[in-house]
């Protein structure tokens, strides 16, 4: 491991450079997303959003004296920490990336951060890792996220359920850092507000039958089943078993369970189900949706706006530092993300580069109304959704 770290560090110095990239040079951005695994249905839009931001900066032609950004994409699998760590090591040692946009899920993100990014001094910005544990993780100032912590999501979930008049809920969660962290955060908030969690039980992904888990949940009771799982894995399996047995017919779905695949998989069976995932009604959000449509992908897909913003913040921080070396630009992420400065929306990255080059401040709000707080994460905006007539739609923002 020591030899790997030494070799990796050497490659980082060569590729990242303690110098600003110049005309004709390529700055490499690692893009780690769950192209396979429990969130594979939303990864394509996240990837396309990243490409959109990179293309915008490259088209400007003014990034670090004319350097171009190249995306190097790998599959983090969302749940296999070993595979994600190996992929991250390849990004740094073989591909010489200057920063990593990713990873997707909380457990693999922490594994990559601790085992690869920190030892090699490479900055990461995740668009979708939401575990509260990441807020206090040792990161040497190298880790940020454009999605809010699940500590914030727990508050949102509790508020929505209470406003709809639900006092008792059952909770099932995927058995990992994301699921447990979200379930605990929600239960604390819901019970503090006077609600009752009848049961909070883990489920394993990858099973063919979830009738036993649903039986235990049904025995405990509850007006609503909260499913803190993954849309392409056990979460959908639990819903199917609950619907087939009649155990539950109303579900609350948090961020990991939101995807258009639900409309195809369940249709009108989910009518009356509701939930929330990160999103905003800011001017930047509307601009991003239009840009995404022109690029051929759905800009409302979960974590697509946050992916665009994560890539944009990496590039703007590099521009602010005048360097593609993580050690140089990691301290400038807050500078470009927050006040003071001229507000920057999607489609205005060239403008942002011009302002930075002129020595002026920028306040990047982007597609998700980014505002970074102390732990290096988004303060948190959510869109409330409801299922009706076989599809979900946004009914409000928080």
The CATH homologous superfamily of the largest domain is called Response regulator
Q: How many strands, which pairing sense, and closed or not: the largest β-sheet?
A: 7 strands, mixed
How many domains comprise the coordinates? 2
Using the CA coordinates, give the radius of gyration: 21 Å
What is the CATH topology of the largest domain?
Answer: Rossmann fold
Low-confidence stretches: 1-19
Describe it for me?
This protein has 2 domains: 2-149 and 282-378, Response regulator (Rossmann fold); 150-277 and 383-397, 3-Layer(aba) Sandwich (Rossmann fold), CATH 3.40.50.2300. 42% of the residues lie in helices and 20% in strands. It contains 14 helices and 16 strands. Helix 14 links the parallel strand 11 (342-344) and strand 12. The radius of gyration is 21 Å and the shape is globular. Mean pLDDT is 93; it is low at 1-19.
Brief synopsis:
42% of the residues lie in helices and 20% in strands. With 398 residues, the chain is of the alpha/beta class.
Would you spell out the secondary-structure blueprint of this structure?
Elements: H1 2-16, E1 26-33, H2 43-60, E2 68-75, H3 81-93, E3 99-101, H4 106-120, E4 123-126, E5 143-145, H5 150-163, E6 168-174, H6 177-192, E7 196-203, H7 211-220, E8 224-228, H8 234-245, E9 251-253, H9 261-266, E10 274-278, H10 283-295, H11 304-321, H12 326-329, H13 333-337, E11 342-344, H14 349-357, E12 362-364, E13 372-373, E14 377-378, E15 382-388, E16 391-397
Parallel strand pairs: 1-2, 1-3, 3-4, 4-5, 6-7, 6-8, 8-9, 9-10, 11-12
Antiparallel strand pairs: 10-15, 13-14, 15-16
């Amino acid at each position: 491991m020591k030899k790997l770290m030494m070799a990796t560090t050497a490659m980082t110095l060569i590729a990242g450079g303690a110098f600003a990239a110049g005309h004709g040079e390529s700055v490499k951005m690692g893009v780690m997303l769950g192209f396979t695994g429990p969130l594979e249905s939303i990864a394509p839009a996240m990837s396309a959003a990243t490409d959109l931001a990179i293309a915008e900066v490259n088209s400007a032609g003014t990034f670090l004296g004319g350097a171009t950004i190249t995306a190097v994409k790998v599959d983090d699998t969302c749940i296999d920490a070993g595979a994600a760590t190996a992929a991250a090591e390849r990004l740094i040692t073989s591909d010489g990336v200057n920063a990593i946009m990713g990873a997707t899920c909380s457990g693999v993100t922490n594994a990559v951060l601790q085992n690869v990014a920190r030892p090699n001094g490479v900055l990461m910005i995740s668009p979708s890792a939401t575990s509260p544990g990441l807020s206090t993780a040792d990161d040497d100032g190298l880790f940020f996220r454009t999605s809010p912590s699940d500590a914030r999501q727990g508050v949102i979930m509790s508020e929505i359920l209470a406003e709809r008049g639900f006092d008792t809920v059952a909770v099932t969660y995927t058995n990992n850092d994301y699921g447990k962290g979200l379930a605990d955060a929600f239960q604390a908030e819901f019970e503090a507000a006077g609600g009752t969690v009848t049961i909070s039980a883990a489920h394993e992904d990858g099973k063919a039958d979830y009738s036993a888990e649903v039986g235990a949940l049904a025995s405990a009771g509850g007006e609503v089943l909260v499913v803190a799982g993954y849309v392409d894995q056990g979460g959908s399996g639990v819903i199917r078993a609950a619907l087939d047995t009649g155990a539950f017919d109303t579900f609350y779905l948090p961020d990991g369970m939101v995807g258009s695949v639900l409309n195809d998989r369940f249709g009108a069976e989910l009518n009356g189900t509701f939930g929330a995932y990160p999103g905003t009604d800011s001017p930047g959000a509307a601009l991003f949706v239009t840009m995404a449509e022109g690029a051929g992908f759905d800009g409302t897909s979960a974590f697509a706006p946050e992916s665009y913003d994560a890539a944009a913040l990496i590039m703007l921080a590099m521009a602010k530092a005048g360097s593609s070396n993580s050690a140089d630009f990691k301290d400038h992420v807050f500078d470009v993300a927050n006040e003071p400065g001229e507000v920057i929306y999607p489609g205005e990255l060239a403008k942002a580069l011009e302002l930075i080059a002129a020595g002026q401040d920028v306040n990047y709000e982007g597609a998700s109304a980014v505002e970074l707080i102390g732990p290096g994460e988004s303060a948190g905006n959510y869109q409330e959704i409801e299922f009706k007539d076989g599809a979900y739609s946004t009914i409000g923002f928080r």
